[in-house]
Amino acid sequence: MYDLVIRNALLVDGTGARPVRGDLATSGSRITAIGRDLGPAKETINADGLVLAPGIIDGHTHYDAQVTWDPMVDPSPALGVTSVVLGNCGFTIAPCRAEDRDITMRNLTQVEGMSLDALQKGITWNFETFPQYLDMLEKRGVGPNVACFIGHSSVRTFVMREDASRRAATDAEIDHMARIVGEALAVGAVGFSSTTNESHNGEGGIPMPSRLADDREMLGIMAAMKGAGKGVFMTTKGAITPIAKIEEYVAAAGRPALVSGFLYNKMNPTRASNFLAEIASARGRGQRIHGEVSCCPLTMDFTFKSAYILEGYAAWKRAMEAKGDSLEALYADAAFRQAVKDDLERFRGHRAFNSEWDKVTVIETATPGNAALEGKTIAQLAAASGMHPLDYVLDLALAERLETVFAATLLNSEDEEVAKIITDPSTYITLSDAGAHLTFLCDAGFGLHLLGHWTRDLGKFALEQAVYRLTGHPAELFGISDRGRLKPGLAADLLLFDPTTVGRGAKRRVRDLPGGAARLVTPGVGVRGVWVNGTRVVGEGGNVIPERLPGRLLREFAA
Hints:
alpha/beta, TIM Barrel, 2 domains, eight-stranded mixed β-sheet, 21% strand
């Protein structure tokens, strides 16, 4: 007798093959049969009208801190995700010396949009090395399956301490870093991650440590990857890092690579496609490179206490360094404003925010007299007042002691152009950033958005293609051999959904982080069940069932 049979579902197996109507049975943690009239089971579900697919594999998350206090990594399971890859962009919390925990947490406050208080109250620090971090996760248990990158910024901080964000590494320090990376790959890291992106800064605007790495350091670490003969190289590209340089690193490592992140920018419409063409050219030379892309519009909620949308501009660094009254004084300074205006003009089309003030909206005002401004764009309000939009938005923020909440749609908002990017064969659809930017956005439901908006509503993907891009494809990229497909003998990671309603709901703000800190979440729509290793973790109504932690720490990856 089977443990579970899901009958009469439209089976989409994660390989790209056409869907078939049938039944699927599980026993323990595995899929045991697929067919018709499979026989009796302890539990039977009639899935008539529903789609059964492998669970979504989310390859770009930042749950490294959250997983230590929330092993279910909410909200991902309720959004159809059964496996998550942590540690992208080099932003990890292991390795970390006990005396350097404050440095690590302060780095994450800026780049990951989390309050220092939440991190201080939430992180369980019972590890120092990366192997100890993996052991801790495995012993405690996880809700979905978890794979972990070894992160460059943490490795650099472990070796160089306070100098990690200040200078290039010595040969001895590079050798030490390479040994740490090699050890991490040996004990089960999925790969090595890094970033050179200009918007990736720690508290006070200091660059994330990996941004200080030179060629010697990168090639030393690539040599460690080559020696290990395993692992994926993941990096977030900055403006100063050409694809040709990344290809050089990939060739030195002899390993596959994921390069993040390419989104459509109306102010520079060929930028993403040109980069993807370069990646396609590198693939033609035998390099296994994919460009990470998003199927979601990049939107952010923010206040001017931390205006992340502007942090890619050098002139804004002074704002990242200032606090309290000194920050408000800086915002009022005419010279500072002019420097920012100059940067906005100089780099138009080359940053996340490109002076599209018509896409910046007042969401919530802090004083009753300004309530009429809510729902209006800064472009509208500035034009009506005869002011430059930057002056208007800063004046409004100052008048409300920086409590005004704004929303900005930054990139990826033109469907026809975004479709060209996400259907490109050189791309990997991901970039949920789940666990990061918590006060700004929640794209953890990217997979449901692909299935609903792009597949059902716009018809840009056949259903089997969309499911493959969310399941079988990432399993191939990361070398996860027993997941991402519906096949007897493989892990029973399953997503049951209604194809007529599937999608992600409207964002809402909740205060459930440690210490009551806020974050944005989006509910899943049309999700009728999620199973991890044969255990149901999400019920019929999309509610999470937290009684068990059925996930596995993934340590073995195919070459």
